[in-house]
Design a protein that fits this description.
It is built from 11 helices and 4 strands, in the order H-H-E-H-E-E-E-H-H-H-H-H-H-H-H. With 292 residues, it is an alpha+beta fold. Among the domains are: 35 residues; 149 residues, Glutathione S-transferase Yfyf (Class Pi), Chain A, domain 2, CATH 1.20.1050. Helix 5 runs parallel beside helix 9 and helix 9 crosses helix 11. It is globular, with a radius of gyration of 21 Å.
């Protein structure tokens, strides 16, 4: 059987043009279809309550309230800051094509960190008020490590490496075709970011190094920076929640319990402190939702 390149070589010029154009059309249709599926905009104007944060996020997760760390980060922040909010679950993306995002009195804000910055300024919130300048710097460094480094490792294990993908496919209700399209996009993103160029063994080693750094820093403290939680605890908890509760099928599901028990205890402590309704906020395979 001839290879695709052999077939292409034997075509005349007009056939080659049609072949290339056909491939381009298929690519365009695929991209458009994915955008409609995942980033569909709802044009109907909703009548949301004033002075309430409308938190747009994907549906609940099976073992933690979200399968995305950024939604759990933002919702934990809202709870920690005692800001009234309402969840809207769905696949409506922000103006930047991202999840999670908020609306507040008609104003839309995209990106979880920018949402927090906006609410801090708008509502006068400062969850870092008890931190020294040095501690704020350390907290920001931890923020960068877990969101700009650890996050990619979690994504690679979840979407890319050869392991059981049933949790992801079932949680997001993805067909095999849609999953493969998402996987391709995420593979390209991780490759461009740089960490996606490494082998699974190399990634696993880096992943464990990040976890060890977090474990060593938290030590026996109740929260990241001491006895009181700070804004970065929302960030760290959001990322660790995916490792602790949603790492099934990766070969590292029990890594926190087995290797970093103080991080497992930290996750449980954050859950108990800010998520007393945790069991009502997870799906267990159903469609349950929670609104605060």
């Amino acid at each position: 059987m001839e290879s695709i390149m052999d077939t292409f070589t034997h075509m005349d010029t007009s056939q080659k043009v049609l072949y290339v154009m056909g491939g381009a059309v298929v690519a365009i249709v695929t991209v458009v279809g994915l955008r409609k599926l995942c980033f569909k905009e709802t044009k109907a104007k909703r009548d949301y309550p004033r002075d309430t944060v409308i938190h747009h996020q994907i549906g609940r997760g099976p073992y933690a309230p979200s399968m995305t760390p950024f939604a759990l980060k933002l919702e934990t922040y809202l709870r920690m800051a005692k800001i009234p909010y309402q969840n809207v679950h769905g696949m409506e993306a922000s103006s930047k094509g991202k999840f999670t995002w908020i609306e507040y009195n008609g104003q839309s804000v995209a990106d979880s960190s920018l949402c927090i910055k906006f609410l801090n300024k708008k509502l006068g919130v400062d969850l870092n008020r008890n931190l020294s300048a040095t501690d704020r710097g350390v907290a920001q460094a931890m923020h960068a490590m877990v969101e700009d480094h650890l996050y990619w490792f979690v994504g690679l294990f979840r979407w890319q490496f050869d392991n059981d993908k049933s949790l992801v496919m079932n949680a997001f209700k993805l067909s095999k075709f849609t999953f493969l399209m998402f996987q391709r996009v995420l593979k390209k993103q991780a490759w461009n970011q740089g960490l996606g160029r490494h082998t699974e063994e190399e990634v696993a080693e880096m992943f464990k190094k990040d976890l060890q750094s977090l474990s060593d820093f938290i030590g026996t403290k109740r929260f990241l920076m001491g006895d009181e939680p700070c804004e970065t605890d929302c960030v760290v908890f959001g990322q660790l929640s995916q490792v602790y509760w949603h790492f099934i099928g990766t070969g590292h599901h029990n890594i926190l319990k087995d290797k970093y028990p103080n991080l497992a205890a930290y996750c449980e402590r954050m859950k108990e402190t800010f998520w007393p309704d945790w069991d009502q906020c997870i799906t267990h395979g159903g469609t349950r939702e929670a609104t605060k």
